[in-house]
Amino acid sequence: MGKSVTIKDVATLAGVSLGTMSNYLNGTKVVSPSTRARIELAIKQTKFVPNRSVRSLHGNRTHTLALLVPDAANPFFAELARGVEDIARTRGYLLIYCDTAGDEERQRHYVRDLAEMRVGGLIISSGALNPPNVGELEHVETPVVVVGQEGMTLSTSSVVINQHHGGYLAMRHLLDLGHRRVLFAGGPGGSRALQARYEGALLALREAGADPSLLTRVDATGRTIRERSALADNITAMDPRPTGVLCGNDMIAIAIVNRLTREGWSIPADIAVVGYDDISDAQLAVVPLTTVKQPAYEIGEAAARLLFAKSESPDAPNRRISFTPELVVRESTVMPGQPF
């Protein structure tokens, strides 16, 4: 068996000091792009494998990031994770993807254990962040970035989306098409983002001079296709029936559209449906879905960049990056040739 490659061998080949090599491996100080490139080339040429577990035992953070989301099965969060991971990979970091399923204790378990594992940082979707746990994050030594909605107050860097405005846009669109009796089909857990979307829809109704009670809210009991599809039962049972449905996310909207079309309903002639997120399947659905677009990949990229900035300059002021959703109109609300 040949001699194993040491950190000194790599430093010599890269033409850097052992201290610079240590700074690169441990992330303790910023290394210039040109120096980083020489080190990475030397690592590749020597096939050097850093012992990250040893560095962790000595108090240094591992080259890993963790992303906590409330529903890993939702393609929106998968796309967000891809944005985080693409930035993480350029810095030599791995991504741990954790599904809290909206469960408070499960979230607390993840935050505690990931901090003890000395991960390089945590990105937490506020949909997975229940109000009692917000304060706990402020005492976690691991760098944290929260992805949430406008209006959150938290002493950490964050990426925020104006979910209230997104709900307003969706309801305003249905109102402009003449709909007044609308069902708000939400998901389980009653997340903060979902509540903000619902309140935005209520604002649109009030501004239009319509009775807010015309917006009926029903939340799915779970995240399975069967549980999402069951929301269609509320539509058929209502008297009078709603003429429009505003959904908490695209997964719910697609499930409802599929169920109703199988039962002979015409979308949007019999009922108009609006989703939320603009996942890839929204455009490919049996009836292309009108939805409120959130740029999931860009949100993930922004969160990762904020996290690395926080890690490299812990005493720097917290930063906030904002995104504004936009309405994407397709055939689930406007028939081909119908003016809008």
From TrEMBL:
Coiled coil: none annotated. Residues 5-59 form the HTH lacI-type domain. SUPFAM superfamilies: lambda repressor-like DNA-binding domains (SSF47413), Periplasmic binding protein-like I (SSF53822). InterPro entries: HTH_LacI (IPR000843), LacI/GalR-like_sensor (IPR046335), Lambda_DNA-bd_dom_sf (IPR010982), Peripla_BP_I (IPR028082). The keyword Transcription regulation applies. Pfam families: LacI, Peripla_BP_3. GO terms for molecular function: DNA-binding transcription factor activity; transcription cis-regulatory region binding. Keywords: DNA-binding, Transcription, Transcription regulation. The keyword Transcription applies. PANTHER family: HTH-TYPE TRANSCRIPTIONAL REGULATOR GALS (PTHR30146:SF109), LACI-RELATED TRANSCRIPTIONAL REPRESSOR (PTHR30146). This is LacI family transcriptional regulator.
